Amino acid sequence: MKQTLTRSKGLQGTIQVPGDKSISHRALMIASLAEGTSEIHGFLEAADPLSTRQCLKTLGIEFDMNDNALRVHGRGLRGLRAPTRELDAGNSGTTLRLLAGILAGQTFVSRLVGDASLSQRPMKRVIEPLARMGARIESTERATAPLTIHGIFPLKAIHYEMPISSAQVKSAVLLAGLFAEGDTSVVETITTRDHTERMLGLERREQNGRMVITTRGGMTIEPRAFSIPGDLSSAAFLIVAATIVPGSDLLLKNIGLNPTRSRCIELLRSIGADIREERVEVFSGEPQGDLRVRSAALRGDLVLDGKKSAEVIDEIPILAIASLFSQGSFRLTGAGDLRNKESDRISAMVKNLRALGCEVEEYADGFAFQGKKDVIGAEIDSFGDHRIAMAFGVAGLAAEGKMTIHGAECVAISFPGFWELLLQLQRS
Ligand code: S3P
After folding, report:
1. Which residue of 62, 191, 370, 384 shows the fewest CB atoms closer than 10 Å?
2. 22 in contact with ligand 1, CB cutoff 6 A
3. pLDDT tens readout for residues 194-227
């Protein structure tokens, strides 16, 4: 499907952004391992979390709806059933990597598969620690999916120093730790999103500037009510749209403001964005609040090195678009893992920015360019990546002429209804 966008006269309205993707995946998995029925309010009904739900269903978990809440009938740590068919993670790295952690501690064999994009993404990062814990995992020669997981119970507890910064790997090891004998700990130098730790109430301590997180093997998980905030990584597209389209004023309700996710707000403010937080409260252990965004002239440079880029790993495409419309420059380095996302995001950004007439320098681990005065719409390829499609869709609202996004349907991965929402918010 292609989507065409033209210059907007301003975006206005009050919006509830769809639920947080990372938290939705984790709520499903942790509720499935709980001793009884949990309720999830604000679950993200998008392709990625639905892949997780389908996999858990194949593992014997039952779900139903009650008053707009998704009920998950947890069966306890030892309650998953051997699947009678493959577990299909679709496009979702979080589904595949986190489930691999849980499946490593089962006494049955399971096979995890993914779509063409996911089947290209590196899995050694989870295979290696899970194998150290005792699971046997078969993959392709390139250490990609399909993964056949020969689980074992109990697993061996390990102390794992993270070789890369990845919340998916950290969570896979911590979840596997539930099925280990003793305490499993993970050490991270750069703090990545901490939803798994918060949800399981895990012990965290700082040691020599690094964070050590520990799971107790065999701990009981109580069922509960989860309240999922709006996804800040999805809201970021609307925040930048309202910032760069003159005459905009948006109120985004109940957005997740977990400090491991909210660095993008600070970075946007540092180049002049007008983003105000209102009514911040903590629900289900996660801070959330309303964000009011008004258009603003952007100036100043965005310089993202390894640490900073890890903190905004999902927002890099839209931060680059903010810079494109600023009087300043964008420079990203130390972000080689961006080539391993739903697309090679460095290459996808560079190609599409060049299509907009921008002179971009490409590095193995990043890219750099100067903001432009007049951006003229062009033909854009989403490369099947939801965040690339949405980032350039937003650019289309501030560019001259017509922006056409090819492969625009992929927004359904994290933000169903995104294109319709952009239309609804147009000031007439
Ligand atoms: C996610 C972690 C990040 C992020 C992804 C979701 C998660 O991946 O890019 O969209 O829910 O844990 P990495 O941990 O591989 O960086």
Report:
1. 62
2. yes
3. 999 999 999 999 999 999 999 999 999 999 999 9
d(CA 247, CA 375): 18
Separation of CA 3 and ligand 1 centre (Å): 27
Residues with catalytic roles: 314
Q: How far is the CA of 341 from the centre of ligand 1 (A)?
A: 9
CA of 375 to the centre of ligand 1 (A): 31
Do 14 and 253 meet the contact criterion of CB atoms below 8 Å apart?
A: yes
- Specify the pLDDT at position 369: 98
Strands (E), 193-296: 203-207, 210-216, 225-227, 249-256, 274-283, 286-294
Identical fold between 2-19+229-424 and 21-226: yes
Measure 92 CA to ligand 1 centroid, in angstroms.
10
Ligand 1, pocket-test mutation among 28, 92, 168, most atoms within 8 A of CB: 168
Question: What is the average per-residue pLDDT within 375-393?
Answer: 98
21-226 is a CATH 2.60.120.920 domain? no
Separation of 412 CA from ligand 1 center, angstroms?
Answer: 17
The contacts of residue 77 (CB under 8 Å, 6+ apart) are 33, 178, 179, 218, 220, 221
Q: Which CATH architecture has domain 2-19+229-424?
A: Alpha-beta prism (3.65)
Atom number in ligand 1 closest to CA 25: 11
User: Atom 4 in ligand 1: which residue has the minimum CA distance?
Assistant: 314
Look at residue 152 and tell me whether its pLDDT is greater than 80: yes
User: How confident is the prediction for the chain on average, in pLDDT?
Assistant: 97
Q: Is 167's C-beta closer than 6 angstroms to any atom of ligand 1?
A: yes
Nearest residue by C-alpha to atom 9 in ligand 1: 314
Secondary structure of 284-326 in the HEC alphabet? CCEEEEEEEEECCCCECCEEECHHHHHHCCCCHHHHHHHHHCC
Q: If pLDDT is split at 50, 70 and 90, which confidence band does 284 have? A: confident
In the predicted model, what is the mean pLDDT of residues 316-322? Answer: 98
Q: Tokens representing 144?
A: 């990609």
Q: Are 391 and 422 in contact (CB under 8 A)?
A: no
168 CB under 6 A from ligand 1? yes
Q: Is the pLDDT of residue 427 over 80?
A: no
Ligand 1 in contact with 162 (CB < 6 A)?
no
